[in-house]
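Hey, I'm writing a tutorial for new members on how sequence and structure tokens pair up, and I'd like a real worked example in the thread rather than a made-up one. If someone can provide the structure for the chain below, I'll link this post from the tutorial.
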Amino acid sequence: MATTDIDNALQKLAAAVRDEDREAAIFSAHATKGMALDISAAHLAAGAKALEKMLRAGGMPSPAEVDALVENLARLRPLIDAWRADLP
């Protein structure tokens, strides 16, 4: 799994929030959470989990809340890329 997979999920989440498409937003938040957990990105996973919980409770995150996840991934990207480079 590459960070581009998480990027794609976050782009879909941002679009779903912008379009107020709750089901698509739930799916994308859940996917982001799962991929973040796969790479032990706990803070990113926790943020995605919080948005998923908000969505399931009937709320809709703001674009700024989605942007915070995108920024979190941007900070992690160098570490993830270094980790991937060390894989056989």
